Amino acid sequence: VNFVTHAPRPNYIEPLFTRDPAQISEVQVLMAMMAIKGIYAEYGVNRLNHGIGFDTAAIELLLPTYAESLGLKGKICQHWALNPHPALIPA
Predict the structure, then answer these.
(1) Structural domain boundaries of the chain?
(2) pLDDT band at residue 75 under the 50/70/90 scheme
(3) Distance in angstroms (rounded) separating the CA atoms of residues 12 and 56
(4) d(CA 9, CA 86)
(5) pLDDT tens profile 8-50
(6) Three-state secondary structure along the chain?
(7) pTM to 2 decimals?
(8) Contact 74/3 with Cβ under 8 angstroms?
């Protein structure tokens, strides 16, 4: 450490939000369905690196049901890297 700066008050990271499924809108569900059918299925996407947000949360929630109904179980999204948000980590 080359230098230390003292802040006038303690600093902490405040979580932006949690990925509560109840807050996912119908538009985000529709966009997730379009992404699964139009991109993931079409190009055989196997590796995911989803960040935070309701758009990717909608995709994650629809994979077990909607993607399976399209016959994609075991064909797409097999390798995941999830970037957890501090609000998602239990204390």
Answers:
(1) 24-85
(2) very high
(3) 26
(4) 21
(5) 888 766 555 566 788 889 999 999 999 999 999 999 999 888 7
(6) CCCCCCCCCCCCCCCCCCCCHHHCCHHHHHHHHHHHHHHHHHHCCCEEEECCCHHHHHHHHHHHHHHHHCCCCCCCCCEEEECCCHHHCCC
(7) 0.69
(8) no
- Token code pair at residue 87: 């609000």
Q: What local confidence, expressed as pLDDT, does residue 12 receive?
A: 66
Contacts of 55 (CB under 8 A, 6+ apart): 28, 31, 32
Note whether 70 and 35 are within 8 A (CB). Answer: no
Give pLDDT, residue 43. Answer: 95
